[in-house]
Amino acid sequence: MTKRTIESLDNYLQSFFNQEKKSLLYNYPGLTLHRLRSDIKLHAFLNGVDTEEIFEFPYIPYRSNPITSFFEKLKEGVPLEYITGYAYFYRSLYKVTPDVLIPRNETEILVELAGLEIQKNFQDKTCRIVDVGTGSGIIALTLMMEDFATLDVTAIDISEKALVLAKENFFNLRYAISAKHNITFLKSDRLENITGNFDMILSNPPYIKRLVDQDSVHHQVLSYEPSLALFLDDDKYDLWFEDFFKEIFEKLSASGISLIEGHENHLEGLSEICKKIGFAKVQIIKDYTGRNRFLRLVKD
Ligand SMILES: C[S@@+](CC[C@H](N)C(=O)[O-])C[C@H]1O[C@@H](n2cnc3c(N)ncnc32)[C@H](O)[C@@H]1O
Q1: What HEC string does 222-289 produce?
Q2: Dist. CA 200 → ligand 1 center (Å)
Q3: Which terminal Cβ of the chain has fewer Cβ within 10 Å, N or C?
Q4: Which atom, in ligand 1's list, is nearest to the CA of 107?
Q5: pLDDT, tens only, 218-250
């Protein structure tokens, strides 16, 4: 019988990382040992193991527990955020499941752009905001937490499951959100079920063309993230956005502003549609990598 040596979780993690590096980097581009350590720590904490010494614990591979299942899922290529069930966005931790998109860094810029507009124009009045395609709720909830001004938010999604999760995130973060803000969650196809006028309409909608853009999408995204959150059919793309922009135009107040995240290759085309609809100002804003990423639409 060969003698079994017990090793610490830290030793196991380091040899796992070195041995599996090629496939890990294929599934998780840019993954570092540091990131894995912090996710294991988070995962352990969320599963009731709250200790700084976790990495000195012995790692026992044949015993089924949250740590062994973390490594199994890692080998399968499950996104880290779906393994832990949480993702960082801006300054908070949000619950995520495969029913919603994993928050992306670019969307933090959308929040900042919206924050600037709110700060400038709503110091003495409530800002009525709609977040279309709220998903995990990150845009709506971050703006409420950042407290730029008093907000009355309507968070919309076509997905019932996404709305359940957005409400859960609101519940989890409720003590970080001032009671002066109001939020309503609503199921709707874009702005179809919404009445009234709004000062700001924000959206990070599905914006990848199912066929044309598919090659540029990472295989892990295709395998694990919800298609409803990502893709539109190529032949319906322009019409889907045209209908959406018309609803935005109709539901924005006279001085209203809309900020929409979009695909770098399609924003030029979409901006032409917006001009035809009659927006007074249509601007394309780049992300930090210099790619076209957002549309800023001013109604009057
Ligand atoms: C790209 S994800 C954005 C999620 C979240 N706002 C974020 O930034 O991470 C798009 C979201 O739009 C929702 N969605 C897709 N089609 C929709 C529609 N026709 N009307 C409303 N929401 C829609 C999806 O369910 C998904 O939650």
Answers
A1: HHHCCHHHHEECHHHHHHHHHHHHHHHHHHEEEEEEEEEECCCCCHHHHHHHHHHHCCCEEEEEECCC
A2: 17
A3: N
A4: 8
A5: 999 999 999 999 999 999 999 999 999 999 999
Q: Report which protein residue has its CA nearest ligand 1's atom 9.
A: 103
pTM above 0.70, yes or no: yes
| Lining residues, ligand 1, CB within 6 Å | 100-101, 103, 107, 132-135, 138-139, 156-159, 162, 189-190, 204-206, 228-229
3-state secondary structure of 117: helix
The reply to whether CATH 3.40.50.150 applies to domain 100-298 is yes
Task: Write out pLDDT tens, residues 179-201.
Answer: 999 999 999 999 998 999 999 99
Domain ranges of the chain: 7-84, 100-298
DSSP H helical ranges for the chain: 9-19, 21-27, 33-46, 66-76, 80-84, 106-121, 138-146, 160-172, 219-224, 227-230, 237-251, 267-277
From ligand 1's centre to the CA of 134, what distance in Å?
A: 6
Query: What are 300's two structure tokens?
Result: 């009057």
